[in-house]
Task: structure prediction
Amino acid sequence: MTDTAKPELSNEHALFKLATELAPLGIFFFVNARWDLFAATAAFMAATAVSLTLSKIVLKKMPVMPFVSGFFVFVFGGLTLYLQDEIFIKMKPTIVNLLFAAILIGGLLYGKLLLKIVFGEVMRLKDEGWRLLSWRWAAFFLFLAALNEFIWRSFSTDFWVSFKVFGIMPLTLIFTVSQIGLLHRYQIEDEQTAPGTPSA
Result:
């Protein structure tokens, strides 16, 4: 019974994590459409705080990437509200994506597979697979940083908010799905039978 419950629990946790990431963005979009970016920023900060708290309570740990992103939401959101300047919250995705890219590249240059450290319990890949995946994610983070800079500098605030809510998530999902081939290619198969023994 325990073994069959684990996948269900894992799926529930995955759905919970997705909901806690999407909810603050949805609130950000709604409040901006109803009022303005400053009200949306305050609501975004409050929703992020609730989301991180719930993650800690339900998952018994703080997910690394949402925690780092949340930290910058509070920093750049606070600067936006204090200085009444939109540029800080608009640059937040750029800074976060550049930071993630720099961390991954720095780890690779020093021979550290940081993705393996974070996700090693979820996926079992050969080191070459982790290395390629790290380079690809670093490149994708750089792409998102450049794209965010282009969007907020070239279009209206409302367009940038829509892009942040409805653009980044689909792009990330498409990129993630595109890595399935790499995951299969470098996956480490579990040894269920003794060498030379045919499997069922």
About this structure: Residues 1-9, 191-200 have pLDDT under 50 and may be disordered. Residues 1-84 form one domain. The chain has nine helices and no strands. The chain has two domains: 1-84, 86-188.
